[in-house]
Write a structure and sequence with these properties.
The complex is a heterodimer of chains A (311) and B (532). By secondary structure, chain A is mostly helical. Chain A contains 13 helices and two strands. The chains are: A mainly alpha (311), B mainly alpha (532).
Chain lengths: 311, 532
């Protein structure tokens, strides 16, 4: 049984990586190059960002070197991810519920990364009972407590809001209640394990050490084991649902909303557009394929459906 | 008629699904009446799918039997399948997929939408309402995900669902203000446009103003106005003559000047409806000493491209002709006149549709005009514009292209009593005529534009002029976009706001010419002056 438990852990991590990879690959393969569909403000426009301006405000902009302020993009996405800025600005009532929920997740995700690094450090010889590790352990124990409580509080508040707000209730699908419910369960089990443990951090560090060394020792507590099992499920479940926005947001922001690179500056675009025009179109409307069944985009764009018919 | 509207009502409701209660529509600080809906006629009920609300944009023929009902559904599903294939929709597929897959259903977009707000927060106008129907159909009937009904909610699919979804795609101005607020990056405006594309590109269903009278007319005779090259040249010649007399400055608008620096691309609607705009451009460019020309080549004298609103194929065809005409003339750049969708279509969307070797650089007229005004190449007296002025931000140019400051800098320089509207710049609201509605007047569309879509803009205008509302003070609404002007004109006319509030509206170039010292004073006219 213990071995199966560890196999599930490997499966969950591998599953998360594979499913996330597939999602990203599907996005990238959907089109070699989609049209520009930017939306201002675009944060890499430097001083113009403050009012939503763009390079197209410049006379003869195509004759000038292109400046992209990557720091602006990073600052904007970090602000959005860390503070849920858009929700704060446009949906404050929901933010008060959603923010603790997300903040709790960030704490547990960040905590997991620190535990992983601690486990690696121990494997490379750092004394697990040393002062530094005790300090890290205290921090992680606090993070798990606060993070777990935030997820529970935020999750319950979100479910309540989605059940009682007439507008939200209409759009909240059964899966969404399920998703939030699983996170709340994850948090509750984490808190029970935390109460059960002398040091949650030690349990977590040892578990990850065991994972890394394929040392399949049993778990010290049923609460901890259940907490991890729900965590394994979430790792697989997140990329299979709309919650994959946690990583797909990179593309919706960087590639779509802020994707303003003109073809003038992009050899990739210059080379890709002619190839895309070779794709076969089979839209059925009379004015597109004109009863021909299929044409290339190039043929479509260079055909005039309103031109007088020649015999 | 349901107040407590559910998503599934699109497939189950009998007859007209919703009715927008005029009493729930907010009142404004200016006298703007609510226009009663005209009842849907028995003939319409009998023959067309006018089953969403009081408005009917598409006039989808009502299926006569079960076979026709099935055909409508199957065609729609086939179109939906195609819109999720790279070959048929490489232009938009990644954007569509992310908007379909990752919505967190938080409804943050609702309050950003002027239609939702001005319909009295009617459920049907949540930007997510139509999107969610689209998503459920896709996952249940096209993608056929296991447990789709449980995971995403059930959605019945029949001819009523399809007909109502088609109409719902035309209850949106495509201003994308909702997309700006989305924490995830979902674009409900894009989904509305993709639905329009399915109807047009697969099902041959479109508003006749956009297709037959719009893109097809443009492809046939050269302009959506119906003007042929010869007629355009004649009309512009008349405009030159008229405005030479009006301004006291000899105006000559050049056509087909080989090797000129600039090809100016007007919305040809200006030639017919606002000749002063054409004259003002000619006058400014001429006095600034620019090397420029108009083209008389078919399609290239009309920057309109309604494909932007509903059909990628039509869009590409017209955009290509615009580029080819400029290439033929050998100009260094195309300057796009005061037309929002022409700006975005030719500058942004066409940028990754037309092969680079066929492209000619495109510049907004706001930028060109800014250079002229700020460099002092024409002599201006701001005191000639000594009346309150506010500036409308066309969505396509401002939110969707980030051209915000050049036009403001001009107005600040030449209009001492300039004041911003609330929610200006990239946070602006659509005029209400966006995405093709400005040219539609039938089946309660004009009532809809007056009651709902154009209402928020009039609130902004009223707020901008709140210190001088009433007939005593002349006020100028600067709306540098042809479609926006059309929408604002209709609201002003219908509510008699020219007289009640001494409003005049027009573009940016008219305001510049009004301040030119070598032009006879009074280029901008108010209604009271025109009567004198």
């Amino acid at each position: 049984m213990t071995t199966i438990f560890y196999l599930l852990a490997y499966l969950a991590v591998a599953g998360f990586l594979c499913l996330a990879f597939l999602k990203v690959r599907a996005y990238l393969q959907a089109s070699p190059l989609h049209v520009r569909w930017e939306l201002y403000p675009v944060p890499h426009e430097g001083a113009k960002t403050s009012y939503g301006g763009s390079f197209m405000e410049e006379k003869d902009w195509w004759t000038k070197p292109r400046h992209v302020n990557h720091f602006g993009d990073i600052k904007a996405i970090v602000t959005e991810v860390v503070l849920l800025h858009a929700t704060f600005e446009h949906n404050l009532k929901l933010w008060f519920r959603s923010y603790p929920f997300h903040f709790g997740m960030y704490m547990l995700m960040g905590g997991t990364i620190i535990v992983l690094l601690s486990a690696l450090a121990c494997l490379f010889g750092l004394d697990p009972k040393g002062g530094f590790m005790i300090f890290v352990g205290n921090v992680i124990n606090a993070v798990v407590l606060v993070g777990g409580l935030c997820i529970i509080g935020g999750g319950v508040a979100l479910i309540h809001r989605r059940m009682t707000d007439e507008g939200l209730r209409r759009y909240t699908t059964p899966e969404m209640f399920f998703n939030i419910g699983v996170f709340v369960l994850f948090g509750i089990l984490g808190i029970f394990a935390w109460v059960d443990a002398t040091s949650f951090f030690d349990w977590a560090r040892v578990f990850i050490c065991n994972l890394l060394t394929a040392n399949f020792d049993p778990q010290p507590s049923n609460w901890f084991a259940l907490h991890l099992l729900v965590g394994f499920f979430l790792l697989i479940w997140i990329p299979s649902t709309q919650m994959a926005h946690m990583f797909m947001k990179y593309f919706t922001y960087h590639d779509i909303r802020w994707g303003d690179e003109p073809t003038t500056y992009s050899d990739n675009a210059k080379n890709t557009i002619p190839n895309e025009l070779k794709y076969t179109v089979n839209w059925s409307a009379e004015h597109i394929t004109g009863g021909a069944g299929s044409k290339t985009w190039l043929e479509v764009a260079t055909t005039n459906p309103a031109a007088p018919k020649t015999e | 008629m349901r107040d407590n509207l559910q998503l599934t009502d699109v497939s189950t409701a009998e007859g007209q699904m919703v009715s927008i209660d005029l009493d729930r529509i907010p009142n404004l600080p200016i006298d703007m009446e609510k226009m009663p809906w005209k009842p849907v006629t028995d003939e319409q009920k009998e023959n067309t799918c006018c089953i969403l609300d009081e408005v009917c944009v598409l006039n989808i023929p009502k299926p006569k039997n079960h076979g026709e009902e099935e055909e409508l559904v199957n065609k729609f599903l086939e179109g939906m399948r195609k819109s999720f294939t790279k070959e048929n929709n490489w232009t938009f597929l990644p954007i569509l997929e992310t908007s379909v897959e990752y919505c967190a259903q938080c409804n943050s977009c609702s309050e950003a939408c002027h239609l939702y707000e001005m319909s009295g927060e009617h459920e049907m106008y949540r930007p997510n309402f139509r999107s969610e129907i689209f998503r459920r159909i896709y996952k249940q009937y096209v993608k056929k995900e296991p447990l789709a009904r449980w995971r995403y909610g059930d959605m019945g699919l029949n001819w009523k669902t399809v007909a109502r979804l088609g109409e719902l795609a035309y209850r949106c101005n495509l201003c994308r203000r909702c997309a700006q607020t989305c924490p995830v990056g979902v674009d409900n405006g894009l989904i509305a446009r993709e639905i329009r594309k399915i109807f047009s590109q697969e099902m041959n269903i479109y508003p006749r103003e956009l297709h037959e009278k719009g893109t097809m007319n443009q492809l046939k005779v050269g302009s959506s106005t119906g003007m042929t090259p010869e007629v355009v040249k004649e009309n512009v010649e008349f405009i030159d003559e008229d405005y030479t007399e009006i301004t006291g400055v000899g105006i000559h608008t050049p056509f087909d000047v080989q090797g000129a620096d600039i090809m100016l691309l007007h919305n040809a609607g200006e030639i017919m409806a606002w000749p002063e705009n054409i004259a003002a451009f000619s006058l400014i460019f001429q006095e600034a000493g620019l090397s420029w020309t108009l083209s008389s080549k078919s399609m290239a004298y009309d920057g309109v491209n309604y494909g932007v609103f509903y059909d990628d194929a039509q869009f590409a065809r017209i955009a290509l002709q615009h580029m080819l005409a400029a290439k033929e003339l050998g100009v260094k750049k195309i300057v796009i006149g005061e037309c929002g969708h022409a700006h975005k279509g030719l500058t942004v969307v066409a940028d990754r549709v037309i092969p680079y070797e066929y492209q000619v650089p495109r510049e907004s007229c706001y930028v060109t005009l800014n250079d002229i005004v700020m460099s002092g190449r024409i002599k201006l007296d701001p005191h000639r514009n000594d009346f309150p002025v506010t500036l409308h931000d066309p969505c396509n140019i401002v939110r969707l292209m980030g051209i915000v400051e050049p036009q403001r800098e001009i107005v600040r320089k030449i209009a001492p009593k300039f004041r911003e509207m609330p929610c200006n710049g990239v946070n602006n609201y659509c005029c209400g005529g966006g995405s093709g509605f400005a040219i539609m007047t039938r089946n309660n569309i004009e009532q809809w534009r007056g009651n709902i879509t154009g209402r928020k803009k009039m609130w902004q205008i009223a707020e901008a002029f709140k210190d001088c509302l009433g007939p005593e003070t002349k006020k100028y609404i600067c709306a540098p976009c042809s479609n926006c002007k059309g929408q604002i004109r209709e609201i002003l006319e219908h509510n008699d706001l020219y007289a009640k509030n001494s409003f005049a509206y027009g573009g940016l170039v008219e305001l510049i010419v009004n301040a030119m010292v070598n032009v006879k004073p009074g280029f901008i006219k108010w209604e009271s002056e025109e009567e004198e």
